[in-house]
Amino acid sequence: MNTISNLRKQLDKKEISSVELTKKYLENISSKSDLGAFNTVCEDEAIRAAQLADEMIASGNSASLTGIPLAIKDNICTKDIKTTCSSKMLGDYKPPYNATVIEKLVKQGFVPLGKTSMDEFAMGGSSQTSAFAKPKNPFNTECVPGGSSGGSATAVAAGLCVAALGSDTGGSIRQPAAFCGITGIKPTYGTVSRFGLVAFGSSLDQIGPMANSAEDCAIILNAISGHDAHDHTSRNHNIDFTSLLGKSISGLKIGIPKEFFGDGIDEEIKTAVFNAAKFYEQNGAELIEVSMPSLKYAVSAYYLLACAEASSNLSRYDGVKYGYRTDSPESYDQLIKKSRSEGFGDEVKRRILLGTYALSSGYYDAYYKKALAVRQKCRSEHDEIFAKCDIMLTPTTPTVAYKCGENIDDPVKMYLADICTVTANIAGIPAISVPCGLNKSGMPIGFSLSAKRFDDAKLIQFADLFEKENPHPVANI
Amino acid sequence: MCCKTHAKMVEYRIDFLQGSDIYMISKDQLDLLCELSKLYLSDEELAEYGKEMTDIIKLMDTIGDSDFEYNPIDTSNAVPFSSLREDKTETFENMQGIVNNGPRTIENQFVVPKIVD
């Protein structure tokens, strides 16, 4: 299994060139195209970037990601490279600019391998709502890779890239990371600029890395984080995400919230997560029980807030300025309605309708305002928890990856499956998913660590310690 | 939202709550939501979405059991004005890139169906 830190050494020692490395990954992508990880593979751009990277390395000007081949979720704008959001609505869209994260990576000399498939507009937890490639789980290709960043998770787990960018609005980095046996972090809200990330739920969205190790996640976060004048919610905290790697956790406290271990969580997952807790205890951490009573309202609050924001954000798709446009509309109103109805898939339409419902006069107080109240309560409960402990440990998902096609006709069941991840987005705190073994069927299990806002480096520290003694599972493909 | 639409939504809300034993979002309600969302749904889709939306709203209704009050002056995630960039116009250099994405354009203008006869 390749990691960025290993490849960095090989590149800097000239044991391998970036062009050679890039060609190897492009071959992997081609030979495993049936995994459906990518919507677009940008071979020419990748080779050009690798050549430039080799020049940077030769001149002694390499940065941590110079020459490193990465995959990019297909909702992050890449100049002149298709950014489809896995939607017919944006099927031919080529952004005229780069997202800020891409600009930062370009400055480092990274190699963009392509755009990974996802749930349409990041709405889903299986990646099966994609209008284009439908990614499969490398541990069992009959199963979903999770979502919405399922293509990125598949690509990393199958060795089609060394790491990838995903985005997380309610668990879309952590849940597929858990399903595919890799590490994924949703940074504190405001850590990474959202400029150029196609908006879903703006108060919840964050871009983050998905990789083969927590250390690799830290390296990518160091490259992409920081204040951006184009995103007023981004902050400049000058965090070195690698700063706590290798430091002892002795004396630190881990909170175990009892509400996250209810009847809906698979017994095998509970056991694996408790074993992870015991590992930390054996390494000097103290386990304490904490409580989050508002959890029972979290899924409802999350979907009301996210869909309300989505209904507003997606109103820009009108068939006029960019995106899909219906044939021969008879009126301006029909142009908009038909373009949207033909361009959006079922799940996107459902969420727009729900968001519109929640924001409608007569419903606003009962739903949207109530969801805001739950959000405030969730934040204050997290503040109370992190006043008592340094880290909170929970399962990432209630189940392991399920079969493709399963659950797709039951939106409520799909929504409830987000119970373990949505609170981090609601509260704006950082959370990381780390693999902790396989179940009896050979499917990966993940546990999550969360911390107070801007304590992301501590998550990396804890995750790295676990990974050093519990290597990631490897897909047999 | 116009007064007529507002009144209609309030009326539907009352119908919805009073009919909670049946708990079904009506076709009229869904029609109105489609109008507000600028979406067309066929009769078949309306029936399917109606059932799914009813189940989803049942789940969302559980939030009504919470007794938390929203505090509008909570500024835990406030952004200081000093962090905002200066409000000045800037020339976007890749105008052609924008125009190229237009589904129909003539002379750098987006074309839409005739609005005024």
- How would you sum up the major sheet of chain A? 11 strands, mixed
**Gyration radius of chain A, to the nearest Å?**
21 Å
The count of strands of chain A amounts to: 11
Distance between the termini of chain A: 13 Å
Instruction: Identify the biggest protein-protein contact and residues per side.
Output: A-B, 74 and 56 residues
Strand order of the largest sheet of chain B: 1-2
Task: Please outline the major beta sheet of chain B.
Answer: 2 strands, antiparallel
CATH fold-level name of chain A:
Amidase signature (AS) enzymes
Backbone shape of chain A: globular
* Number of helical stretches of at least 4 residues of chain B: 4
- H/E order of the elements of chain A? HHEHEHEHEHEEHEHEHHHHEHHEEH
Which regions of chain B are unreliable across 5 or more consecutive residues at pLDDT < 50? 16-22
Mean pLDDT of chain B: 81
Strand coverage percent of chain B:
under 5%
In short:
The complex is a heterodimer of chains A (477) and B (117). Chain A has 477 residues and is an alpha/beta fold. Chain A has helices at 4-12, 18-31, 43-58, 100-108, 150-157, 174-179, 214-224, 267-282, 298-313, 332-343, 346-359, 365-388, 411-416, 422-427, 456-469; strands at residues 38-41, 69-73, 111-116, 163-168, 183-186, 206-211, 253-257, 286-290, 391-395, 431-438, 444-450.
